[in-house]
Specification:
This protein is mainly alpha-helical and 94 residues long. The chain is built from three helices and no strands.
């Protein structure tokens, strides 16, 4: 038998489904800005799943790193790469 109470089965199943959908959507999207948005949603879904699994310390860490810092770093990197590419195109035209 499972160690989880029967009342946790449905929320846990919904949490796993949300993580699967968010992860798949993150991988399938091609635009990095949209990917970072979906990555933060995936981080929130994982934090919720960890909370359901009674791991609040892991959920808080996931909330901070997976939902906020990682997507922010990705957005800043994309911005810098796009700015550098735009500057190189501008220099070539001059």
């Amino acid at each position: 038998m499972s160690d989880f109470p029967l009342s946790l089965g449905l929320p846990l199943s919904l949490g796993l489904a949300l993580v699967a959908v968010a992860g798949t959507a993150t991988v399938l999207v091609r635009d990095p800005v949209r990917q970072s948005f979906l990555l933060s949603i995936l981080g929130l879904a994982l934090a919720l799943l960890f909370l359901l699994l009674q791991a609040p310390d892991v959920a808080l860490s996931q909330l901070a790193v997976g939902s906020a810092l990682t997507p922010l770093m990705l957005l800043l990197s994309v911005r810098k790469v796009r700015r550098r590419a735009r500057d190189e195109i501008r220099d070539e035209r001059e």
